[in-house]
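Final report, section 2: Outcomes. Of the targets proposed, Phenylacetate-CoA oxygenase subunit PaaI is the one most frequently requested by collaborating groups, and we therefore present its record in full.
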Amino acid sequence: MRVEDAAAARGNEEYRQVLTDFLYQLADDDLVLGHRDSEWLGMAPELEEDVAFSSIAQDEVGHATFYYDLLEALGEGRADDLAFGRGAGERRNALVVERENGDWAETIARHYLYDVWETVRLEALKESGYVPLAQGAAKIIREERYHGLHMETWFRRLGQAGGEAKERLEKGIQALWPELGDLFTFGSGEKLLVAHEILPVDPAVLYRRWEERVRPVMEAATLAWPGTPGRPEKSGREGSHTQALEQLLDAMGEVYRMDPAATW
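The predicted structure is given below as tokens.
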């Protein structure tokens, strides 16, 4: 099903609802992770990484802005309000992106695993039946490839270094793995998302593509494969989140709350 623009999407309420739910997932994933990236400013182990993470944070927030703009066009409200004015229970980001950063190794592990997933997801979305989303995915994926390459380089480097570096990386992966399965879910509208061809590839196929890319890199980094990630008891895709997200939103929205009507 090909839908050319927001006006056409608004004409089919079921389609619009499934689409907006998915766009919230995409937007919230990138905004929350982008904010976590920004927290490394002045804290990264190398000056070059301060610059790199600041740039990546800006990219992630920019991608989120694109998705919020699509939501605004669909009648969900102002993009700024959607980004900064919604509470934790209204957010649809995966649990793993809201976790506090942990140490450098855990941050690299999370970002690498997320970036591979985002690339797989964007590759599929380039063929989305919702034309504005497909067009945006084709642009965003060019930046994400650089993010992925950067994180993969660090991931391999830490694993192959052995000693404390590898131990910290292994510890970070072990900490992330129980929540990682939430990343691969699409909420209660998953079947309709595929049926309407908003997401033109079955989620199970996307997961297999992710694993096929991650496992060889873990092997090259001399890391054991922890097994297929299970789904946590609660899901960020359904609005169930941790205290870490509430604290993040409080910090991220501090300036916005000074004057919610302003345009930032």
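The radius of gyration is 18 Å.
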